Records
---
Amino acid sequence: MALHWKILIGMVLGVLFGLLMVNFSWGKEVVQDWIKPFGTIFINALKLIAVPLILGSLITGVSDLKDISKLSKMGGKTVITYLLTTIIAVSIGLFLVNVIVPGESITEDTRTELVSNYSESTQKYKDEAQNQKEQGPLKALVDLVPDNIIGASGENKNMLQVIFFAIFFGVGLILLPEERAKPVKDFFSSFNEVILKMIDLIMLAAPYGVFALLAALIAESPSADLFIALLWYALTVVLGLTLMISFYIGLVYAFTGMKPVKFLQGISPAQLLAFSTSSSAATLPVTMERVNEHLGVEEEVSSFVLPIGATINMDGTSLYQAVAAVFIAQAFGMDLSLGVQLGIVATATLASIGSAAVPGAGMVMLVIVLAQAGIPEAGLALIFAVDRPLDMCRTVVIVTGDATVSMIVAKTEGKLGEPMSRTGTTVTLPKINFLPAHQDAAPGESTTEGGEKNDVPLFHFSAFPGFCQGNDNRGCSRIPVFHDVVVDLVIA
């Protein structure tokens, strides 16, 4: 059974198990003590390899460019594309929330109950956001450069610092003479392969980890009454996220010609894992594997674009922040002007860049957006009840956006080909003989109907359908092999 089906089954069983356990007084405690830890272990295992993956893949990807101009060209395309998609996401969110006006469904009684229930939880986010607001305008630039790479690698929240170091290290390798840089490049290339193999092993446990995560989510969720009160808000966010995914599909088709079904099939395991973990950073290893092996993006591009996207591309979070800010304002009876909402676009875009790719990070950034728009920060409690399931949905959008941008950049760089699994092998052979099936011949010898010897030189033999003939993989042509032909491989 395919991996995404196993993950989907795990998700369904997790939800059903959680719904069953909430009917017992002891059910929530059992899920928290005996089921949730396995989900935590699964997430920790993915986070464990996030930093090594970024170091290995980015250093390898940057050094393989062999030219600083290629780096600046690809980097410019990547950042600009990510920023444009983020602006579009925020705009979609603002349009929908102004049309649907979900804040009108919040009654005074519901508002009071939510603020009372979640005042302690919201205070934590408010304190963290206050610390960020008190920092200088160039604090983000200062934080980009680590003073200790070991310390920066010790926490997944400092991914920008890790990315900076990896790119800086890769640039250093490019500037070295080839013979001096080769041993280091070979080391990181092998290091990256080891990490990819670890991903394969971890993903064997994905269905069980997803089961545990969703069972815990259902068991710990607030009462159904609060979800019903916030139904229109949730539907607005989900509709916006759905439109964003449709936009991605359209971009992929316009730039690459890949059909929507093929694109969704290729990225679906990463989407399901993103939905389960609510972390684009934890999903990054799987996203990279799906983009490389199932969407045809060369590793040179994916190893550069995807780690950056996991940090700065927060389209789903930006859309959610725009909807949430206006929704809270509507709930408090505030009428936001066009200028204030344009300010939300700018703030949400910039805030999303610095948002950590971990569950709940969007909450901290949302407080900054609320403060910029003059919206009471206590209104954060209005959406806290449904933040977790919506966080899961917007992470799907983030991962899909990362894959989309990687395909666009790969297409413009001439690095987008046919999907090819790592399990495939290539054998180099000097010569191949084609023998008619009905005819016996000694090894190394073939005979046509006229008795003429027919040796066909072949330089590459691929494990994929047909034989590849030519001087290199890019310039070769496929030779179809039919069932009535026996292929006699001869090493000259």
Note: The chain has two domains: 3-412, 426-490.
---
Amino acid sequence: MKNIVNYLFIFLLWAIGWGCSPLPKQAAPLALHPSNGNYFIFNDKPTILVTSGEHYGSVMNSGFDHEKYLKTLADEGFNYTRIFIGPYSEIGGNNFGITSNTMNPDPNLWLTPWKQDSVSALFDLTQWNQPFFDRLHQFIGLAESKNIVVEVTLFTSFYTDHQWIRSPFYFKNNSNGIDSVHFRKFNTMDNGQLWEVQEKYVRKIVRELNPYGNIFFEIQNEPWSDNPHLAKTIMTDTLTHPYAWQKLVEEANEASTLWQRNIAELIVDEESKLPNRHLIAQNISNYGMVIENPNPAVSIFNFHYAYPDAASENVVLNKVIGLDETGFMPHNDFIYRSEAWKFILSGGALYNNLDYSFTVGNEDGTYLIDNVTPGWGGISYRKQLATLRDFMNGFDFISMKPDKVSFALNGGTLAGHALLSEPDKQYALYLHGGKNCQISLRMGKGNYSLVVVNPVTGEKKGPIELRSESDWVKLPIPSDFEDIAISLVYLKP
């Protein structure tokens, strides 16, 4: 009997640690890369997040087939999506001209975090709605299995009374005797009893999602919309940017900024009691501005409809600069494609096109976007965006920074460019609107491999070997083009 016990003990030791493979170590949550905080590390790999995703309703709209949607993103090679989960919807009416809007579900299919009485239709802000959390877990878990990062946007501005009077937080829509406040005060500390409800909601979401590694939290979508401060006015191309608001660079005012800081502190405080820590994002402005006095709790600074300078001017923060929404431009692949390329090659690490080809019934992104919808997307554009993703993954981009000194136009005309480099080692160059142009780069002495990439088709020409004998080298590339991308990598002797 003693021998049997000994054998059992030996077998147990073997099974636990000697004879069986150890359980796989769970990758750390999405984080800033330790060698260059302008980029992410995810699943132990340097990462740039790129997507063309649906209009944020994939969790709150239970009529949306999120399984098909996430499969489509994964199959097309994208690694990122953005969702709204809180007290906001675009139910009823024509919100922003979006005719097939996932944020406009049938009211019976709208899921919120709070229980709703089936008779009175009133929400109880003290009771959680388990079907919502079940769907949230399903979505995040499935995304994690497909290596897709989810931007969880906790709050958004209310743009008009139309959205506000449908919110569970509107005083007539709940049974909790909540104060009646103007929607512009909702995302401020001057919101009466709402702060207590907001705090409980944030802490609940943070606890629920703590086990997942594929998320980050965004405090509020477009905080400059309900509490704006005009930073500056800009000149824009009226053909590309036809709306009056597209000439305004607005940021959040002091009341909004204080409230956002307090929300970030709630996230940090709640996670201090939990196993995992997740990145926090703050939505800064439209187009771009130099970020001053950044919130130390924030690791991702997002812009909408961003110009390249939004990234290049803020890389000194050693934090991720993102373009997490774009649209409201004419339906033209080039306009969106060039925006994405220039932003990423200016130091950005996150890009999201608001893709209106994803709708209820077309969760595979095959809906034909109508002429009035204020944005673009579709299969053709997503293939072009995938070319940008593949191009960047061909570099050791962790070692690269935006470069405004190693480029020269020697002749002809050029509409625009962006250059990301590790000087004398690797260069990623994007050019558009070239007419009889001659381009030179400043490179150290040695041999380089040059590849020319067509951003539309992904077709590559090269590699060819290019010799640098001096500081500036003329690139053997076409002189006329709509847009092209250039890869130059040093060849070790």
Note: Residues 1-25 have pLDDT under 50 and may be disordered.
---
Amino acid sequence: MVFSSYQFIIFFLIVFFGYFLLNQTRFHLAGRSWLTASSLFFYAYWNIAYLPLLLGSVFFNFIVGRHLFPNQESKSLPFSRRFILVFGLFANLVLLGYFKYTDFFIENVNVIFDIDYVLPQIILPLGISFFTFTQIAYLVDSYRGRAKEHNLLNYSLFVTFFPYLIAGPIMRYGEVEAQFKSRQTAALNYENIAAGIFIFTIGLFKKVIIADTFAVWANAGFDEGRAVIDFFSAWGASLSYTFQIYYDFSGYCDMGMGAALLFNIRLPLNFNSPYKALNIREFWRRWHITLSRFLRDYLYIPLGGSRYSDARLYFNLIVTFLLCGLWHGASWMFVTWGALHGAALVVHRWWNKKGFRMPKVLAWLLTFNFINITWVFFRARTMDDALKILRGMVDFGSLHNFPVEFIPTMYLAWGGRFSDFLLKWLPAGLAANLLCFIAAGITFVLISRKNSYELMTGGNYGAAKLLGTLFLFCVAMYAMLATKSQLFLYFNF
């Protein structure tokens, strides 16, 4: 049940009206129970086999968390709070490691020792990285005295709330505790409904119109198995994926925030125009904000952060982003991507310490191109695939000397006879990817404007804004019903 599907729209309407109907009759406990049960149904809809895993994880962490509150040393267990915390963290990481990294580990053992142990082919449960990290944060915050919950229902709703269960944001209990319990949350709020529909619609449009369109070009460039790729096709593929993942994740964040807001729940900002960043540090303050926050508070700072020598600081950055890469997937390509970002942050720290500066335009250009290039490693299935794209991006000889016979027919079919005309005046690669570059150009303009969150918080839902929202919703719904929307990319992590 993807957010960008008619099944989800039907599901959401049933949950929405059921929730507020129960609350209007003052059955607030029943309302929260309904929302929790609906969230569990949402998860089970994907694969009911993993519902017991989610329920077991919730129950286990709730029990562990109850023994971690300060001044709540268990009288029934001969263990310290610190021991219980370590045990809880270890259990969560073992669960995540088993499902996410067992095949990867065995695959590498086979290569190192030249053996042929059969891979168990473990299927990754949807959202396990997100609900595991959410609960790890809860355990640590409970130990630090920042989270207290003695109610299993409230805790279950906190973990399983469907707008963020599958792909984040990675929540902290204190961000939603008071909201779930508030009587104001149980009442219809027409301002929140208007804002929620507005940003949900923008997110839906981003996903089904923009992200899924760029996905066609990205998939063609990365997955079609061409032996040689020209300059324009390589840049078209890389930029397409750069914008696909941008609008895919941005669209999900908008839709999740909008869906939650319709229930009067305000989620933390998780995406804030990251391609406007002027350096790599700013990028990570704007991209997947709650993941960056988690890595900072629960990994980087415990490792020592910036409290010690520069060498220790650089080591902590590299380790943090190596694990950031590995968190995204069990592949050396993700590790490579994380290592490059860690190295970039080290260079950025060194650069600032030396007091160097550069013009904003140049800073943006370097930052964006670094991000674009590193996304190649993130997207490519193998290092050879990544290097093929990168070699094409610097193959200046193919600007004028790349034979049209090497261009797949599908690249030229979009323009019909117009493509034949273009081939007379433009390099073959540019003619084949012209539509992609036009779309990329328009996208550069779009990302330079106010983002959806800024538009939503601006208020003033007048007739023009409402009509614009209705138009975008109709266009997105038509595209959603006419085609099959792709899975959100972050559902894979």
Note: The mean pLDDT is 89.
---
Amino acid sequence: MAKELKTLVKDTALYGLSSIVGRFLNYLLVPLYTIKITAESGGYGVVTNVYAYTALLMVMLTFGMETTLFRFSTKEGEDAHKVYGTVLRLVTGVAMVFAILCLVFNAPISALMGYADHPEYIACMTTVVAIDAVQSIMFAHLRQQHRPLKFMALKLGYIIMSIALNLFIFLVAPLIHASHPEWMGWYDPDYSVGYIFVINLICTSSITLGFIPELKGLAYGFDRQLASRMLRYAMPILILGIAGILNQVADKITYLFIMPGTEGEVQLGIYGACSKIAMIMAMLLQAFRYAYEPFVFNQSRNKENNVMYATTMKYFVIFTLLAFLVVVFYMDLFKLLVGRTYWEGLRVVPIVMMAEIFMGIYFNLSFWYKLNDETYWGAIFSFVGCALLFVINILFVPKYGYMACAWASFTGYFTAMLLSYIVGQKRNAINYDIKDIFKYVALFGAVYGISLVLPIENTVLKMACNTILLIVFVAYFIKKDLPLNSIPVIKRFFK
């Protein structure tokens, strides 16, 4: 098991490098956007709203085929090439039909979404999401083949291109336009939101060139019987995915319906910008998921897999709690990621981050029904959580604004996590180290609580005290579960 866990850690590190570094660089654009697009304009609320729709559409266009690819590629008697080719053709076909229909009916779709004045926003993003759906299968293929280096190169390539274009549009272009407007006939200083979507389209289209070898999978053929079996497996995952993504974006989609007008766009922009800080946790979870999902399916026949699941869960909880403390303890630094006009929304960050932790634990717990081909359980759990989210948003957003959105996400993910654990232990019991996990949770609660009640106004002094509290948490972890004499290189100093 030690060898397998070592492989998991290595792949997580490589995926994490592309995910964390890439997203961190991308998050450097948030202060750029939130400075150039003030909270009062509501422009960032438009960006938040449109990207929420794309996230939902992405789940629908991939319809569970990423997980299905991993599952069927590792099944005995299945041709991995045939599986990949069939999945790629299915998703490509659906994505192409979707893109064509959206472009043909772009005007009424834009009007329905509230963007009749800017149908090009919707045209750009529907095209992007169609391309992304196809790319997601090719990225999954790279993960399934354990090729994190190419995965990382393509992810970072996209980010670098995106940053370069954004810096040009929002910093360089205005200076050139101010001094030599005749050189910039195409540039409109008031079209900042639109340029965000155009840049996304350019970068997504360009990165497709790196997938030319993976596109050869279309030549592997299409097996109708295999497709039928995969679709039966994937449909519950699709439902699960829709429910799961609704837990993440339903508040951002419905917000402008519950609270329409400029005020709604302003509040949504504040919530969306500050949630970006909380998404640091999402970066860690994504890196873990990229490595863990194919790893679990490849190890599904290992007799020691239950022990591995329990060990992984424990360390997952420890590291996510540590990440939470780092962000909230140094919030005065992380808040610089958003413009000053958005700072009033920083109070949502701890709530949203804890919701992300619940989602990560829920993901860890999900494999009992995925490996047993009982994916309908995931759909049930997620829809219960999603229903709670909708109810809380509808009832409390008019009175409490975006704070209700944060608590709705918290409640929805906690409920789905709890249900998955209870049912999972009855149907496929795993001996999780609950006692040890709760010890870490108790220590986490103690150091976080102390930080909240410390009567210190000076920012530097408060961060210094928080650092001491953080060291206490890390020291306990090192003493109990990560002895330094067991770590390569470092161990030579702790014999």
Note: Residues 486-495 have pLDDT under 50 and may be disordered.
